[in-house]
Structure formats: C-alpha cells, structure tokens
Write a structure and sequence with these properties.
This protein has 221 residues and is an alpha+beta fold. The protein has a single domain, classed as Beta Barrel (Lipocalin). The protein contains 2 helices and 14 strands. The strands form 2 sheets. Strands 1-4-6-8-9-10-11-14 form an 8-stranded antiparallel β-barrel. It has a two-stranded antiparallel sheet with strand order 12-13. The protein is elongated. The two termini are 33 Å apart.
Length: 221
C-alpha cells in the first residue's frame, strides 16, 4: 500500500511540475489603450467612399514558447502556440471624413442599428490558429503571420483567414496590425441606406492597429 501511495504521489508531483513548466512558458498580453489603437472600416457608396473608426480594441493574446516577443528574435516558421480573444464595442465606431473630422450622426445611428446593437454590443474575434509565414527581415521589422479564427458581427459568426503582422517593440510590448475584407451579407447585415442620398456597397474592409503589453505575473500565494 505504501509503495502504491508513493508512486501515486510521485506521479502527481510530476504532473504538477510539467504543468507549472508549461504555464511558465506562457506570456499573456493585454490590450494597451492609447492613440496607437485603432479599428477602421472602409467601404463604398453610390456617392463616395466612406470610413468609420473606433479607438477601442479590448481583449488579450496568450503565446507560448518559441513565439517572437522581442525585436529580431529567432523564430521558426510554422504553427504557433497562441490564443486570442478580441472585442470592439459597436458604439465606439463613428463615421468620419477623410481628414478625420466627424461625418454624420445620422449615419452612425443607422450603422449601429444595422449591426443589431443592442443586443449585439460587440464585434468579436476568437483566434483559433496562428501560423508564422515569414520571420522579421530586420530587428525592427514585423513577423508575418496567417491568422484563422471566428469573427462575430451582428450576432452571426463566420470563420475567416487573414494576414497579420506582429512587431515586437521591446519592453514586453507588441504591435499587431491586420487587414481583411468581409461581406455584410455573410453576417446578415443590410447595407445602410440614407434615403435620397446614398446607399452603401456590400464589401467592407477591416483594418486594425492593436498594441498589447505583457501582463504582470500573478503574485505568489
């Protein structure tokens, strides 16, 4: 009986050590609000192109061993150990002129309604796979990734694939940027229309700049 207990205890200790080692390799990055954070939507209409911007991209990214978190760090192309969840408040998105000035409160009202907010107060993205395609060509250059995940808009979720650039900035900070295009019809969103003025096209380009910073390690209990 004592031998069995000793074996079970040692096995449990090995599992704890293995789990602790894996956890130690993980780094959690959280969104870093500021002027460098931006979510942008671009589209067309019967009158002119339009653009919408928001200053809030919440969420987190957790990466494992081998992920390039420092400028110029060596990395091996291939699938990375990484998970992420991102949230953009629909109410934070505002239509703007090309020079960045506010465009139309009426367009904002129509847009928010078309995005079915409420009840769908957020646009969300859940990362399911991240593959490193190209390593940085210089110390201050980005690493090129292919990201796969689930994008939820107006209560509808679809799988998407998009290119993403991640640039380590030092001081445990990353700059994550990406661009993709989606069809509003794929998310059950009717193209906004200002009666007698303009109607918008179906395709929308999504562009984001998402700075993140490593979270402080949890205090030992």
């Amino acid at each position: 009986m004592k031998i069995r207990t000793l074996i079970a205890t040692n096995a449990a200790l090995l599992l704890v050590v293995a789990f602790s080692s894996q956890a130690a390799d993980k780094i959690l990055f959280r969104a870093k609000p500021g002027k460098d954070m931006k979510m942008r939507l671009e589209g067309t209409s019967t009158v002119h192109d339009w653009q919408v911007e928001g200053p809030i991209i919440g969420g987190s990214l957790e990466v494992g061993a081998g992920f390039p978190t420092e400028p110029g760090q060596a990395a091996t192309p291939g699938k990375m150990d990484a998970i992420a969840d991102v949230r953009i408040p629909v109410n934070s998105l505002k239509s703007i002129e090309k020079d960045g000035k506010p465009y139309s409160d009426k367009m904002d009202e129509i847009m928010i309604g078309k995005l079915k907010c409420p009840p769908n107060r957020f646009i969300t993205f859940h990362l399911t796979e991240l593959v490193l395609k190209e390593t940085a060509k210089a110390k201050d250059a980005p690493y090129i990734f292919e990201a796969k995940g689930e994008l939820a808009v107006a209560g509808t979720t679809n799988k998407i694939t998009m290119p993403v650039e991640i640039t380590p900035l030092g001081d445990k900070k990353l700059k994550i940027t990406g661009t993709t295009s989606v069809s509003m019809k794929d998310y059950g969103v009717e193209a906004p229309v200002l009666v007698g003025i303009l109607s918008t096209g179906d395709k929308v380009k999504l562009i984001f700049d998402w700075p993140v910073v490593a979270a402080a390690p949890a205090a030992a209990k």
